Amino acid sequence: MAEDKIIGGCEINVRNTGKSRCVKIPGRYAMAIILPKNATYTGLDEENNPIEFAEWIMNMIHDADPIRRAYPFPDIEGVENTGEDKVEFTTPYGRKFIMAPGQFGFTMQYLPDDCLTERLVAFNNQKFGVMIADMKNDVMVVKIGNTIKGMEMTPYTSPQGANTASDVALPEIAFTATIADELNKRRWISPAGFNVSEIKGLEDITMAVIKDGMNYIIKFFLSCDNSDVTPELQTLAAGAWLQKDTSGAVTPLGTTPTYDVSKRAFTMDVASIPSGYSLGLVPPNKLYKEFGIEFKELVDFVEIP
């Protein structure tokens, strides 16, 4: 236990120094997960039901509100320690005093992806909670009592530099701690409960609706590279589809489109929704919890032709 004593007019702070019996050594950094600065894991969900850490992270990734959401950053391909050492002052007689604690920080590299980089820049120069997952599927966090949170840090993404004849320049993200001694006092390493390689951020998807005779053909594509991801959404069922009328009112779609395996597309009778209406999907939290669709968010409603 901690002891604070007044000795000779000075407050002395001490704690017992018995070492841990199960020492956790951090593995190579694999991914940084960005959370709202004040987001905390307590072991209970919003309805006070027990929830495992892995499921809590997945729920946060799929939160309907972007401000409350967790954002796994890209897989780390290299790390440089950019933390600062403690600041020392030395008197002319050689006595040393610590003026300021060191500052934790690192710079990560990731594979070039201009579309992703454009989105990562949005996080620049803001304070977030950052959890670092390593290749042993552990996470480095801040622990206060029985509560876990991210380290308060500021990310800054820099675009890819110029390639040389023999090297590819990788884009970088610099993370700087904003509370200098937070890790010294409260760092905690714990099993993540999930495979880090299976975690990723939400993918923006777009919907294409084409009229084909008396049917609509519906397909989904990644907004970044236009990859067809329709088969990944084939579990969409009643309750997943929304319609928006010309006044902007949103209601559930009355008739559920049917997935056609041979066409790799959904089909729907043209009478199912009036022309001029727009077609959409429920938010990511419902796609995940009710239909088992992970890491997807529809960018916007699409007007029916």
The poorly predicted ranges are: none
Distance between the termini: 70 Å
Number of strands: 24
Rounded mean pLDDT is 91
Q: What integer value in Å does the Rg equal?
A: 25 Å
Helix-and-strand structural type: mainly beta
What amount of the residues lies in strands? Answer: 35-45%
Contiguous helical run count: 4
Tell me roughly what share of residues is in helical segments.
Answer: under 10%
Shape: elongated
Number of domains: 2
Oligomeric state of the chains in view: single chain
Summarize the helix and strand pattern as letters. EEEEHEEEEEHEEEEEHEEEEEEEEHEE
Major sheet details = 11 strands, antiparallel
Short synopsis of the structure:
With 305 residues, the protein is mainly beta.
Structure description:
This protein is mainly beta and 305 residues long. The protein has 2 domains: 20-198, no CATH class; 203-303. The protein contains 4 helices and 24 strands. It has helices at residues 53-61, 114-120, 182-186, 284-291, and strands at residues 2-7, 10-15, 29-35, 40-41, 71-72, 78-81, 87-90, 96-100, 105-109, 128-134, 138-144, 147-149, 151-158, 172-177, 187-191, 203-212, 215-222, 241-244, 250-252, 258-260, 265-269, 278-281, 296-298, 302-303. Strands 3, 4, 5, 6, 9, 10, 11, 12, 13, 14 and 15 form an 11-stranded antiparallel β-sheet that branches. The chain has a 5-stranded mixed β-sheet with strand order 20-21-17-16-23, with helices on one face. Strands 19-18-22-24 form a 4-stranded antiparallel β-sheet, with no helix packed on it. Strand 18 and strand 19 form a beta hairpin. It starts with a strand and ends with a strand. The model has no long low-confidence stretch (mean pLDDT 91).
